[in-house]
Amino acid sequence: MSGPIPKPSDLFRILLLPILLLSCSPGGDARTETGGSYGDSSLRDEASGESLSLNSADSGSASWERSAARELLYAEALKKHLDKDPSIRRQVEEYRKDLLAQSYLDFYLSDKVQISEEEILEYYRENRESFRLRQDRARIIHYLFSSSDDANSSKRILLYGDPAQKNGLTERFLPEERTVNRGMLIAELDAAVFRDDGQAQIIGPVHSEYGYHLVDVREYLKSGSYLPVAEVRQLIRERLSSRKKEQNYQQLIDELKEKHETK
């Protein structure tokens, strides 16, 4: 084998990149990095200087239309014998190697990156400081009304209504549920939500230039407190999974290098 052997960490990053060969997915970009004369899957509009790509998002074109266009262009390329172009043949072979290498890596790692709940809790305990809040935070459901009457009647339902009435309120006004930090809301709401008592409660109506607001504060976390493990479980899982993938990848490369060197 000629040429220097890439470090395992470099190969790992390369092989984990999505491999797209003339993908039809919206928003994709299948330009090659080698930059051959026919290696770019986009066509340049010389008048505007903009790139026209078969893989770019186009709200006016369905996926099947892009697929049909690709087949037509592919047929014309064969007529011009572009498939015989040495630079294209090299790129196709590189795509093929990448695709097979990635497929094998996925197969090899498929049963080696399971993350247990015990591992998640251990990571949380060991890295708890990284989950400490630097700002006050609240999980809220925000209602916006055009009239004070609607806002006040809705507040009574939120406070005293039965589940059916509350569901009807949600279906009618379509409130927004989100997590916000201090300073993210408009001034009137920010002052009302992030008060010194910091309690979960129904706030409002609060009047602003946008209308009448009700805020159902479901959870309030003060600055300096820790995010609960339930909120960061998926983040921890992704971190541990990435770590295990790289560890197992490096182990695999070492084994394969040793295997081929002993031949």
Structural account:
The protein has 263 residues and is an alpha+beta fold. It has three domains: 8-109, no CATH class; 117-128 and 227-261; 133-221, Chitinase A, domain 3, CATH 3.10.50. It contains eight helices and six strands. It has helices at 8-15, 63-79, 86-109, 117-126, 148-160, 163-173, 187-193, 229-261, and strands at residues 42-44, 51-53, 137-145, 176-181, 202-208, 211-221.
Question: What topology does this entry show?
Answer:
Elements: H1 8-15, E1 42-44, E2 51-53, H2 63-79, H3 86-109, H4 117-126, E3 137-145, H5 148-160, H6 163-173, E4 176-181, H7 187-193, E5 202-208, E6 211-221, H8 229-261
Antiparallel strand pairs: 1-2, 3-4, 3-6, 5-6
Helix pairs in contact: 4-8
* Residue share in helix: 40-55%
Strand order of the largest sheet: 4-3-6-5
SSE succession: HEEHHHEHHEHEEH
- Biggest β-sheet, characterized? 4 strands, antiparallel
Mean pLDDT: 79
The secondary structure category is alpha+beta
- The coarse silhouette is flat
- Total helical elements: 8
Low-confidence blocks of residues: 1-52
What is the straight-line distance between the termini? 13 Å
